[in-house]
């Protein structure tokens, strides 16, 4: 009887996949998607995870401190070379509407007493990025929301303008609520419905089908491309994936869109920052139709 029990237990136990199977692309991507359901990963997460102690804050998984003694190297890069920081966890809100209407309502949440505002000429043209402190509507100098940075899209002759406001994820919900209130944006324009992530059972079935056919999956194989799960960023650390991410005002026509985790943001520090950008970015040739 004990021997029969042992046989039945062995059949019920799932076999642990070997390292070669775990390191396959289809299994790696599925595992990464499963691990970042609660805390969103940045695009540079794997690079940081190998070199930093990771912490979970504001709905993201971020690198906190390096595992090696690299403080001197970072200081040397900031003072003599170039240091790159990934700030993609910062949230971006996009405002689209008529310029006069945008400036009229945004003037209620900032003040000229603290410095420049959204109406600054150098920033309004789109050439420079500005920074200021936001307050609740008509409540200055009380009820401060927090510091933000902003940049206008350069004028292209269209009637509507675009404004991007960057803020820390801890301030996003308060600032978003205040912007929707002053622009009277109540109706959601779009709702984000995420696609289901491929489960491990489906992956095993796909692998069994491939092995039964006796063919290796190739990159140019259509069936293989459909079988391999794609990395999905479902929502972001500050928004539930089933919540709307764009709101429109029927009165002013202003549209507020949540662009968190859609636009990557990096910070370059050091005297050679411009040289690095010059060598990295190449100007595109203009083609007129």
TrEMBL record:
Top-level division of the source organism's lineage: Eukaryota
GO cellular component: nucleolar ribonuclease P complex; ribonuclease MRP complex
Listed InterPro entries: Pop1, Pop1_N
Name of this protein: POP1 protein
Organism per entry: Heliornis fulica (sungrebe)
Domain Pop1 N-terminal, first and last residues per copy: 5-97
GO biological process terms held by the UniProt record: tRNA 5'-leader removal
């Amino acid at each position: 009887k004990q021997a029969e029990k042992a046989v039945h237990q062995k059949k019920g136990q799932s076999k642990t996949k070997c390292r070669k199977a775990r390191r396959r692309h289809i299994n790696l991507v599925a595992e990464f998607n499963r691990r970042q359901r609660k805390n969103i990963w940045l695009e540079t997460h794997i690079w940081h995870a190998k070199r930093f102690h990771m912490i979970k804050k504001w709905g993201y998984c971020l690198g906190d401190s390096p595992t090696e003694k690299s403080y001197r190297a970072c200081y040397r890069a900031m003072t003599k070379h170039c240091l790159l920081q990934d700030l993609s966890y910062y949230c971006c809100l996009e405002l689209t509407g008529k310029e006069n209407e945008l400036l009229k309502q945004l003037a209620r949440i900032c003040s000229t007493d603290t410095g420049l505002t959204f109406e600054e000429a150098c920033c309004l043209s789109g050439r420079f990025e500005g920074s200021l402190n936001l307050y609740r509507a008509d409540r200055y100098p009380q009820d401060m929301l927090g510091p933000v940075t902003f940049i206008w899209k350069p004028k292209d002759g269209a009637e509507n303008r675009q404004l991007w406001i960057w803020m820390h994820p801890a301030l996003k919900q308060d600032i978003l609520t205040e912007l929707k209130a002053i622009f009277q944006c109540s109706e959601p324009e779009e709702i984000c419905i995420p696609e289901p992530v491929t489960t491990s059972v489906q992956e095993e079935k796909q692998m069994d089908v491939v092995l039964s056919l006796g063919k290796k999956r190739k990159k140019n194989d259509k069936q293989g491309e459909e079988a391999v799960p794609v990395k999905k960023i479902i929502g972001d650390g500050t928004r539930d994936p089933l919540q709307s991410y764009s709101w429109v005002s029927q009165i002013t026509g202003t549209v507020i869109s949540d662009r968190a985790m859609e636009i990557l943001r990096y910070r370059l520090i050091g005297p050679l920052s411009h040289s690095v950008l010059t060598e990295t970015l190449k100007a595109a040739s203009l083609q007129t139709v």
